[in-house]
Amino acid sequence: MSPEEKPGGPPPPPQAGRCRGARPQQQQQQPQPRRGGLLSEIRTAIRSEPFHLRYRLSPGRELGRGKFAVVKKCIQKDTEKEFAAKFMRKRRKGQDCRMEIIHEIAVLELAQCNLWVINLHEVYETATEMILVLEYAAGGEIFDQCVAEREEAFKEKDVKRLMKQILEGVSFLHRNNVVHLDLKPQNILLTSKSPLGDIKIVDFGLSRIMKSSEELREIMGTPEYVAPEILSYDPISTATDMWSIGVLAYVMLTGISPFLGDDKQETFLNISQMNVSYSGEDFDLISEAAVDFIKTLLVKKPEDRATAEECLQHPWLQQSDEPISRAWNESAGGESSDVTQPDADSASEKSVDAEKTEEDESIVTEELIVVASYTLGQCRQSEKEKATEQKAISKRFKFEEPLLQEIPGEFIY
């Protein structure tokens, strides 16, 4: 299903990235990016009256919290409609970051007509913070299903449907020269949990505008999801997001974070050396087409990765929802082989025979994968891990700090 125009949303910019299905509208000039890929102009009126005059906060736990922002559920008093209020501090580490918030607002405005991007309702400002009133996604993060036990976790047919929506949303952003740079399970929300709803892409605090006339280099992202070019400080591009989508697909299908090590340095080494496995019990019920889909994205050279539009045409997303189990090498006594992904584009590795002939390597212990996580714990534990559950849980929150000092913090919406 292609995104449609949201009722009442502002018109999209006059680019090839206009929403599919949207009626032709009067063209308007796209906001001009500031130095460093930030937008500086917004159309949304910033309200100065007290937030509590029109909204009341809902009791209960916060929807999300980061270093410089907190998200709370709120109710519009005159309509009783539910929203998510994102309270963002304007000063961070002694620096005025108001323009970074303005950029986030501008990106939300740019994507206002896309169904798969969270909708901005209105904006308030106080002396110390800005408040973004956003569409409320009642289903919460897809992260919860990623780390659930197998019975409650995503089925492959669910991942296929949600991945199509993610790719349509990201394709729209890329056509409008926006790179998200922090795509991960915590930044993909669901409109409802049961029945399983649609996705909403959130948190554009790290996003940047790409300009063909200049290169953009940034050290930012969440460690497990950053692309190799981030670590080597090479220019970023829309392909940087596609790497993160590959990791995201891996996590959604298996519950395992593919590059996670004992610490950030080991995780970065795993990414740089392409140490990723496509074997083990977590792949027993994953189709060969799904594995091939991931392999077209987890490619070291950005220019060799599939684009969002190419991914939407991949056989995995084009075939029926009937799950197809992977073929395994029965002659090897039921053991699977670990695969270290090569630097070159692996899109050609599509046959089952090629998969069967790859060299066997030692199986990476799942205990290593469970030891630590930077994003609230990425791993669904298997039966043999349950014995070490208490030890693992104590370390799940060990690495909450974002990658290096350039990252303003992790938060939802």
UniProtKB/TrEMBL annotation:
Residues 57-317 form the Protein kinase domain. The keyword Cell division does not apply. ATP binds at K86. Its EC number is 2.7.11.1. One of its GO terms (cellular component) is nucleus. Its main location: nucleus. GO terms for biological process: apoptotic process; intracellular signal transduction; positive regulation of apoptotic process. GO terms for molecular function: ATP binding; protein serine/threonine kinase activity. InterPro entries: DRAK1_STKc, Kinase-like_dom_sf, Prot_kinase_dom, Protein_kinase_ATP_BS, Ser/Thr_kinase_AS. Keywords: Apoptosis, ATP-binding, Kinase, Nucleotide-binding, Nucleus, Phosphoprotein, Serine/threonine-protein kinase, Transferase. Residues 16-37 have a biased composition (Low complexity). It comes from the Eukaryota. It catalyses: L-seryl-[protein] + ATP = O-phospho-L-seryl-[protein] + ADP + H(+); L-threonyl-[protein] + ATP = O-phospho-L-threonyl-[protein] + ADP + H(+). SUPFAM superfamilies: Protein kinase-like (PK-like). Residues 1-38, 328-361 are annotated as: Disordered. It is found in: Nucleus. Belongs to the protein kinase superfamily. CAMK Ser/Thr protein kinase family. DAP kinase subfamily. This is Serine/threonine-protein kinase 17A. The gene is STK17A.
